[in-house]
Amino acid sequence: GRICPEASRSAGCLSTKYPQPKGQKKKKVVKYGMGGLIILFLVAIIWFPLLFMSLVRSVVGVVNQPIDVTVTLKLGGYEPLFTMSAQQPSIVPFTQQAYEELSRHFDPNPLAMQFISQYSPEDIVTAQIEGSSGALWRISPPSRAQMKRELYNGTADITLRFTWNFQRDLAKGGTVEYTNEKHTLDLAANSSERRQLASLLEGTSDQSVVIPNLFPKYIRAPNGPEANPVKQLQPNEEADYLGVRIQLRRERVGSGAAGFLEWWVIELQDCQAECNLLPMVIFSDKVSPPSLGFLAGAALRGPHPQALPGHLPGAGDARAGAGGGALRQAHLPVPLARDHDQVDPREGVGAGAPHPGRKEPPSRPPGPDAAAGTKEGRKEAAAPPPPGSGHLLVPEGPTRPARWAGAGASSLPLPTSTVGFSN
What we know:
Layout: H1 11-17, H2 28-60, E1 62-63, E2 68-75, E3 82-87, E4 91-93, H3 96-105, H4 110-117, E5 124-130, H5 141-153, E6 158-167, E7 178-187, H6 192-202, E8 209-215, E9 218-221, E10 242-252, E11 260-268, E12 277-284, E13 286-287, H7 293-301, H8 326-329, H9 375-382, E14 391-394, E15 417-420
Parallel strand pairs: 9-12
Antiparallel strand pairs: 1-13, 2-3, 2-6, 4-5, 5-12, 6-7, 8-10, 10-11, 14-15
């Protein structure tokens, strides 16, 4: 065969190196076929990790139900009014009968049925939350008085915040232990709810206060930090949340004004039976089992750049950072250290020493008073060389800048020396 030099540009060499003639139109099958295959290959690289993770969860995934469900009701920045937790056996698994009743209830809604069909009865639990607060309401008298004044005379809205928090056992799978979310409701100034709450604080009324659209009944708890209400089952969002009645209960345990124990009670507004319970239906997504959790995590992260040296641009420089060693060569306004092989030999400690390949002229003899250390001698020794002598005085400067201090550089002061130039 013909051997062409690397730098040869003759017609024969070009035809040998590039057998495809210039300007020849390729067939559409070849052009679009190769382009389509490349696009499909790139899509497969991006899509395969997600597919693998989904297959791991669907085939061998487990349901990690919450082991603790805690709800909190807080008014403004004051002490929480209501705090209650539901644990086993208050977290009741869904039965097949309850699943069928839920399906019949949402049968007219196609979106709701599509959401329900994604879960089996084993994926759903009902947290039966006790309506009486599990903690006594202990608020200081000044804060209590301030709360009453704000409820009565405040001109700004007061936020009523309802929070739910789920806890899982990571030993059963998953990566997030605590999942939470909140729903806020603003009580406008001079509203009936604010006046009724203030009356409860004063003790002039024992009637419960109705708060509409506060309690979301259906919650989705994925393997993440947020547990949002299910929009498919509550299409109107906040308008579909359940209303509640809240009341402040007192029990005398001693004499005087301080001899009372106080706690808050929450009940559903339109409850027919078991009004002392707040049912919260929780849909849990499947998670990877602990034995295969690392596979799903690796699939989500994708291949590491260090595992692809030579296949991806810049993959070989992953350990050296962006740009690799070229970063040290860039002119950046940041202090960078030079390696020992990047130090200019003329900038060493012996910068004033004569170069081996340079002929140095004889130095001027010192003055008679210089040896005696007199002031005139020192001036004469420090005087610059006369013009035309071919010498250049290198002044004695400060220490070398910190950005050049590296393995092969020194921070010692530069000595004064004369450098000769040959004419």
